Amino acid sequence: MSAVNQARGIAPGCPALKPALCVLYLFVLGITSAGAQTSSAGAQTSGESPPRPEAPATEAVQSGAEAVQSGATPAPAAGPALAPGAPAPAAPDTTLTPEQRQQAAVQEFLTAIALAKNNLGAVYYAEGQYDSARVHIEHALEVAPGFAAAHLTLGLVHHAKGEMDAALAAFKQTVEGDSVSVARMSIVPTDTVYAWARSQYDKLMEGTPDLAVAHTAMAIVYNQGGYLNEAVHHYLQAIEDDSSYVDAYTNLGKVYTDTEEYAQAAEAYEKVLTLSPPDDQLPRIHLNLGVSYMGLDRVDDAIREWKRAVELSPDYMDAYMNLGTAYQSKNMPDSTRAVWERALEVGGGSIVPRVALGRLGLAEGRLSDALGYYREILDLGARDPRIYAEIALIHERREDYEQAVVHYEQALELAPDTEQLKAALNRVRRIVEERAKAIESNKIRVRQIVVVTRAEADAVMERLAAGADFAELARETSIDSSRDSGGDLGFFGPGEMIPEFEAAALGLEVGELSGVVETAMGFHIIKRIE
Question: Which residues of 34-73 form beta strands (DSSP E)?
């Protein structure tokens, strides 16, 4: 997505980097399975929820004006206890093949669906909405036919509707495999079986039934599986059941942001702020509202929200990173650098601000600064082909071709099928070969700056004397097409240039700067580099 969610690396070997370099952070509210988010969460059936398929992991290296999801707020309660016959989560097995891991992830997702469906059905049963309860419990059993807790609740639904034979059959399914218990149910009074079933149900339930919490839990499972329409349906149902339920709005806002429906996302987060959410959630809500505004190109509103986030939480790295992205979009490089440096201060060992500052330094031609940040990234253990490619690009721009080759090769070791990396490495190797041949042929290499008037040339000479970088000045001031390469004309020998230019260039030592040289093309300043 263009403004929110995924992050992508730069194209290795690009000759320059565009100004929009870093990331927005979207704090994910509720996309976990770690129990009730607030103390007001209503009753849910107890027990541990099985492992769920991992959401797509945010990449260690970020670039572009895009957002990654950061953090997570615990979801409403887990699901029913795993009674005998319930779908059991598989233990992690590192020996599985990729196909087997994918199958295991699908099974875990289906397990989570069965748990959440039965959880929702159990709450509908407690609310006396038996038809709705039956629909969701039967859905759970379609996924997991041997789910004992679902059979138990379905039996209670049948009993409440006066369907005694169906109730007894469901209760027997609860203890399937225990022939003694099944036989006993056939001879004792139905009310005795019901009393046993109800006591089991009551043991599973905790607190007061709450449909908003149950629908939100169901929505979170769908969200994790990528079924966003179903997730939105259940979040909206949760809001219909309880229009003040904060978790439903925050999670709904997250889904709308993922689908780039920023107006709806902003509306959801704006609504949350009217509901007096817990203080510890406010920084994240302001962060997410800012992401929504950024998606709507309301940059100043986004900045306001992210400033509010850091006012409430002064060490909030994600908000500083987002502020930097907003300032960058407004062409405010000093402000961008300041907030990203603050993000670095509060971010500890995070590589994210280092990547941002490294890329900013590269874009601004501060190659030594950029290289310093990238070295810190490697020292922190990052092993990403994009990082090695970007380090190679710095060395290439510094004309340290040996190190450029080394780092492009390291990038290719990590991403051997990347055509852009192969092309970059081949390009640098050609430069090395051509350079060696040129030196053997007694050719020289220079940079030049060409301007129209003597006054302009004198002004350039003054800036060079003050320490300005020749290549950057060439890109800024030269009228010659060589400006795009920092004035680099490559290698040449006697007889290949116009006489006045050639005489001045051939008389220079490596590193020496000429005076102003006038030709028919204009006024030249020349620097010999090899």
Answer: 44-45, 66-72
